[in-house]
Amino acid sequence: TYWTNRDLAYPEYVENAARMAYGMAGVNEPRKEIHVAEPYDPFDYKELHHLEGLLLFDRGKAPEAAAAGVTARDGDLPCCPSGGLLGVGNPIAAAGLMKIAELFWQLRGEAGARQVPGTPERGVAQAWGDLMQVGTVVVMGNEGGPLTTATQSPPPQSPPPDPRATPLSDREFRSATGAVEQRLDTLYDWDAGEAIGAFLDGLREQRILATTCVSCGRTLVPPRKFCERCFRPTDGWTEVPQTGSVETFSICHVTWDMQPLEEPQIPAVIRLDGTSEGGFLHLLGEVAPDDVRAGMEVEAVWKPAGERSGSILDIAYFRPLDPEVRRELVATATVEKTLESTV
Is residue 223 within 8 Å of 207, Cβ to Cβ? Predict the structure, then answer.
């Protein structure tokens, strides 16, 4: 099922995967048999959300457990002793592997300062994918080998490894041993599909197009040819206003390689006027970070006609409708570089 027509208050996709994993591992009572947990936690609430889906707490009880210290590193059920995804830099596609690696170190007693107390024998790791379309749960245990935990150290001849990452700047990354930077002269055809293809063609013409569903009355941007709520094809096309409001936003002060930005980037989800829930991701411009608010009215600022190519970047950015909130851009080149590295 799609994320737009499922219960977002409870992660059923996690429960389904957890029951399968527990069954394979012979776990009958997760709350008693799991000693450390690494749920997928790219946002604060997701740890609590997924702990309930993993059947480690009853529905609605994970927040109470966290407040009582149950999920702390020295609690009755340590959760995310790694520091969680935000603590390790959120490795996105490698998030699930990071969770598994942390369980490996915890169950071997090799997690150093992060080591949970006692002798944990079994742990669970969990991750998701494709906007909750995919739920992955892995149960790990130390059965079949000697325990090497915080209370039973490994033999002196095999000291525990010291897992450390080496940070690289963009320049260091491109010049590192084994790095290859070469533009491939490869010809290929890529079809964006009927809906997104028409949407991109519209952007080239400085128009924002949407599809409509008469069954549920929604106007969909970005457009799709199928209504995921009604399970039927959409009915037609319409042009929507180039104004809207900020649904949510972030303020980014560093680049992907953690280098400070002179001018913060402000990605935001824009919900255009006359459209239904949701929106699309773009950047805000001509506004100070402290002045951005959810619900702020904005308008599209377009590239010149000769520079538009049928891309989401044909919209240079969105700026506040209120002239008093706007400010002068730092430099056109800076804005264009920001757009290319973010969208």
Answer: no
- Give 160-218 pLDDT, tens digit per residue: 555 555 667 778 877 777 777 777 676 767 778 889 999 999 999 999 999 999 999 99
Inter-CA distances, 205 with 201, 239, 307, Å: 7, 12, 11
CATH architecture of the domain with residue range 194-342: Beta Barrel (2.40)
pLDDT tens digits for range 59-118: 999 999 999 999 999 999 999 999 998 888 888 888 999 999 999 999 999 999 999 999
- Cβ-in-10-Å burial (0-12, 13-18, 19+) of 160 comes to middle
**Helix, strand, or coil (residue 252):** strand
For residue 200, which of 317, 308, 310 has the smallest C-alpha distance? 310
Task: List where CATH 2.40.50.140 sits in the chain.
Answer: 194-342
Closest CA to 336 of 288, 310, 304: 304
Cross-strand partners of 270: 246, 280
User: pTM higher than 0.70 for the full model?
Assistant: no
- 120 versus 259: which is more confidently predicted? 120
Helical residues (DSSP H) of the chain, grouped into ranges: 12-25, 30-33, 44-53, 62-67, 84-87, 95-108, 170-175, 194-204, 332-342
Averaged pLDDT for residues 14-32? 94
Q: Which residues contact 166 (CB under 8 A, 6 or more apart)?
A: none
Surface-to-core class of residue 39, CB atoms within 10 Å of its CB (0-12 exposed, 13-18 middle, 19+ buried): buried
The domain 3-146 is classified under which CATH number: 3.30.200.20, 3.40.50.2300, 3.40.190.10, 3.40.47.10?
3.40.47.10
For the ranges 59-63, 91-95, 138-142, 296-300, which has the lowest average pLDDT? 91-95
Residues of the chain with CATH 3.40.47.10: 3-146
Using CA atoms, how far apart are residues 211 and 329, in angstroms rounded to an integer? 34
